[in-house]
């Protein structure tokens, strides 16, 4: 069921209720946040009477136009009737969300509490890798979410996105794009909604599964050994963030890579991402489980003039340390939320040795500094 005030000459707010007494009404849905005309969509039940209230925004008044439209919602309007995308490495679907609704208990997709017309899809991963999903070529401003779980009340959000990028020619790209790590044989749920209650229209959904970086998950970090000088170079374009993964400081990135290094001595250590092609954040932990890590150090920018990261901390001989590198992005917007750039994450460490090994360590560090200066 759709109700709108399009064509009215005043700013309106709109509410739909059930109930027989003014002091006993239950709100079904409402709209009026855009300081313009209002529109709501909801799943009407046969035989139920609904009360519709229209008012002006604050003290505005004028001519009112109220329109009601009724049509059946799309077949994948509810979570329980998610459209199957199969179990292939690629999938696509097209539809129209004009009469889609929200259902009770439905999770908010990303940072968007204003959507009112979601549709659902399910997909089973044929192999382990990075799944990318987008709504390119859709006719409205979309938001997109990927979830794990079999019940609408027990879903785990894996990734979400509003705008795929905000640096396209002519302005923002209002369709969405996200990525998440998929495990072979596991079924995932994908929700598409509008950015506002008026956000409905023709929808296109595209999915592709590709191999991700080997050290994307916490469980399979790149081992940097026990040497006094170690470096690694990786591309994090297809890296993801896994559920329960700690955020390095104030990072809102979604493309982390993991490394381990075992200290061959006790003393001070410096780790940096100098030479990386994107704005990094980095954190250092001890611990064997993702939900039991203790953070030792964190850094966003090594200096005010650089976007690479550098941490310094003390190590104990024989202890294994875990390093995570991610991108530094703000919580909203295109490239700051889900833009996929070619990212080459270079992780380098130079080590300040304790006194007993200082002479050898100084020669190693000096050679390392000369290489970096070149």
How does this model look, in words?
It is a single chain. The protein is mainly β and 374 residues long. It has 3 domains: 2-69, no CATH class; 79-210, Jelly Rolls; 222-373, Jelly Rolls (Sandwich). Helix content is 5%, strand content 38%. It contains 2 helices and 24 strands. The protein has helices spanning 334-337, 358-373, and strands spanning 2-4, 12-18, 26-31, 39-41, 51-56, 67-69, 83-84, 90-96, 119-124, 129-134, 142-148, 156-161, 177-182, 187-194, 202-210, 222-223, 230-235, 257-262, 267-272, 280-286, 294-299, 310-315, 320-327, 344-352. The strands form 6 sheets. A 5-stranded mixed β-sheet has the order 7-9-14-11-12, with no helix packed on it. A hairpin with a 7-residue loop joins strand 20 and strand 21. The termini are far apart.
What's the short story on this structure?
This protein has 374 residues and is mainly beta.
Provide key terms for this protein.
five-stranded mixed β-sheet; Jelly Rolls; disordered C terminus; 374 residues
Average pLDDT, rounded to a whole number, is 83
CATH architecture of the largest domain: Sandwich
Major β-sheet strand ordering: 7-9-14-11-12
Tally of strands: 24
CATH structural class of the largest domain = Mainly Beta
Number of domains: 3
Q: How would you describe the shape?
A: elongated
State the distance separating the first and last CA atoms: 67 Å
Order of helices and strands: EEEEEEEEEEEEEEEEEEEEEEEHEH
Number of helices: 2
CATH topology of the largest domain: Jelly Rolls
Residues in helices, as a percent range: under 10%
């Amino acid at each position: 069921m759709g109700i709108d005030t399009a064509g009215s000459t005043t700013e309106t707010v709109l509410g739909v209720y059930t109930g027989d007494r003014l002091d006993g009404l239950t709100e079904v849905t409402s709209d009026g946040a855009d300081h313009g005309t209002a529109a709501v969509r909801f799943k009407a039940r046969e035989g139920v009477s609904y009360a519709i209230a229209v008012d002006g925004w604050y003290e505005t008044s004028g001519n009112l136009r109220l329109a009601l439209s009724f049509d059946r919602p799309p077949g994948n309007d509810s979570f329980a009737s998610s459209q199957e995308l199969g179990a292939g490495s690629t999938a696509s679907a097209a539809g129209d969300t004009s009469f889609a609704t929200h259902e009770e208990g439905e999770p908010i997709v990303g940072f968007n509490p204003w959507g009112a017309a979601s549709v659902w899809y399910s997909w089973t991963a044929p192999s382990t890798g990075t799944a990318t999903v987008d709504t390119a070529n859709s006719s409205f401003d979309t938001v997109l979410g990927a979830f794990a779980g079999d019940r609408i009340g027990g879903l785990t959000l894996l990734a979400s996105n509003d705008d795929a990028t905000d640096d396209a020619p002519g302005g923002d790209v209002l369709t969405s794009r996200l990525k998440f790590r998929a495990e072979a044989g596991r079924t995932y749920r994908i929700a598409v909604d509008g950015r506002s209650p008026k956000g409905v229209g023709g929808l296109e959904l595209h999915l592709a599964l590709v191999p991700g970086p080997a050290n994307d998950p916490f469980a399979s970090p790149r081992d940097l050994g026990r040497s006094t000088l170690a470096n690694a170079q990786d591309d994090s374009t297809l890296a993801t963030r896994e559920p329960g993964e700690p955020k390095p400081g104030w990072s809102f990135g979604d493309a982390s890579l993991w490394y381990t290094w075992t200290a061959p001595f006790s003393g001070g250590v410096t780790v940096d991402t100098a030479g990386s092609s994107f704005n990094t954040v980095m954190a250092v932990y001890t611990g064997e489980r993702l939900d039991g890590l203790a953070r030792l150090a964190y850094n966003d920018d090594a200096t005010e003039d650089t976007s690479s990261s550098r941490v310094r901390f003390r190590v104990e001989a024989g202890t294994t340390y875990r390093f995570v590198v991610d991108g530094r992005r703000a919580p909203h917007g295109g490239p700051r939320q889900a833009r996929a750039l070619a990212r080459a994450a270079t992780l380098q460490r130079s080590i300040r040795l304790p006194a007993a090994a200082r002479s050898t360590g100084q020669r190693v560090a000096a050679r390392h500094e000369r290489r970096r200066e070149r």
